[in-house]
Amino acid sequence: MLLKKILLPLVLICLLVASSSVALADQTPMDRVKEGTEKLISMLSDPDMVDPDKHDEAITRLRKASEEYIDFGLVTKYAVGRPWLKMTPKMRDDLTEAFVQLLERSYLQRIPAYNGEKVDYKKELVSGNKAKVFTEIIDKDKKIVVEFRLKIVHGEWMIYDVVAEGVSLVMNYRSQFSSVLKEGTPEELLKLIHERVEKLDRNDPDERDKEEPAS
Amino acid sequence: MKTGDEIRRCLLTLLVVAALLIGFAGASFAADAEASDGPVQLAQFSAGDLSDEDDLDDFDDIDGEYAEHELVADPLYYWNRVWFEINDALYHGLFRPTAEGYAWLVPAKPRTWVNNFFTNLLFPVRFLNDILTGKFDAAYMETSKFIANTSFGLLGLGDVTGGMPRNWEPERPTADGFGQTLGKAGIGHGIYLVWPFIGPSSIRESVGWVADAYCDPLTYGRFTFIEFAAIRVYNNLNTLSLQLKANEYEALTEGAVDKYAAVRDAYIRFRAKKVAE
Q1: What proportion of chain B, given as a percentage, has pLDDT over 90?
Q2: Is the pTM above the cut of 0.90?
Q3: Which residues contact A141 (CB under 8 A, 6 or more apart)?
Q4: CB atoms within 10 A of CB B140
Q5: Which residues on adjacent β-strands are paired with residue A121?
Q6: Fewer CB in a 10 Å sphere around the end CB: N or C, chain B?
Q7: Local structure of residue B33 (DSSP, 8 states)
Q8: Do the interacting molecules here have an ipTM over 0.85?
Q9: With contacts defined as CB-CB under 8 Å, which chain A residues touch B23?
Q10: What span, in angstroms and rounded, lies between the C-alpha atoms of B238 and B98?
Q11: Nearest-angstrom CA–CA distance, B271 and A115
Q12: Residue B132: is its pLDDT beyond 80?
């Protein structure tokens, strides 16, 4: 019987998926953030990362690594807010891709060299399938309070927002997007993001940042 | 990204089908299911995962987590917007290039001394607001730092206590002005205001600035208005020259679709965090 033929692989797949999710959800949100941060730090400590010749390759590697820990679909969804509910799946995908490109350009393009900043993992708060992880980044005499917000997605804790010194990435973009979406269409928002990405691409990042050795 | 989404969608569909099948199976073999824990747990887990995905409209839930942040009224939007654009243009066209030139001319060390000097000079502002907000530890720390830096640090040029282990909270600036104190007393921002050449503020923070000026020793110096303004401008230039790299304003506005909204949001939330600390 056909049904039987499908059923067995299905059950097997389901078992596999479920068991791996269960195992991963055992990881606490804090461990998850720690794992991601440590991975990032070890990547940034690699001198290849700041080698201009390998810039594009470095960006690709960083993006891939961050996608393991950050659910950019959720980041975009929450940054867009309720208008998201009325958007077509295609628009959602396009917006997510454009937004990732924008974030990539503005945060990864000038790859920060790792200067021995210390990360303290302070505490975690879990409520249901959501969690907050509080960290402090100590850079010489400065301390930056950074809070990660996570959600369980397919049995894994995924980051959907970063709140630095009280400023939430998601909410900061929500305030920008909502002013666009209040009067305009999702297509216009998409166009604006694309324009911004192009503008950032035109500015050569290596040109702007060579002055001023760290004081 | 796209392929990732496709895979996710495929997996999801599989999960839906599987969960349904297992759900039916579970219903028809309820007696058996009780005996073995495995499949039941599995079904529950998948169901949980699914409802999580199906529950697309979780904005109430998610947004509730940000409820502690106040937002600000912006009735002077057009005035603010115009001045924001002018300030932004001035920043990129004048302030930043000048600070770059200055940084090229003067090594980082002396610029740090200048910064230390002005920071030390504002001790009365921090002390008074620490006392007013009941942060006595911080007030004590500020006092000892002020004494040490003014004497051993040559009138505050050096920060002789900078490298010492810190055992105080919050981090410096322990208090940054009367605006924060007013906020702690429960007074709201009033409305958002962008001042020409100075930048984002609000009614509350502007009142705070005036109060802070009364605690600023520079106010009591025998300067003409031009001299006073020149000192202020120089201090700001010097501060900017130390923040050319990894500049917060640039990081915030470069990736912004709407710079004005981005800065307003960041300003209000950052102040809220300062008030809360």
Answers
A1: 26
A2: no
A3: B162
A4: 13
A5: A135
A6: N
A7: H
A8: no
A9: none
A10: 10
A11: 28
A12: yes
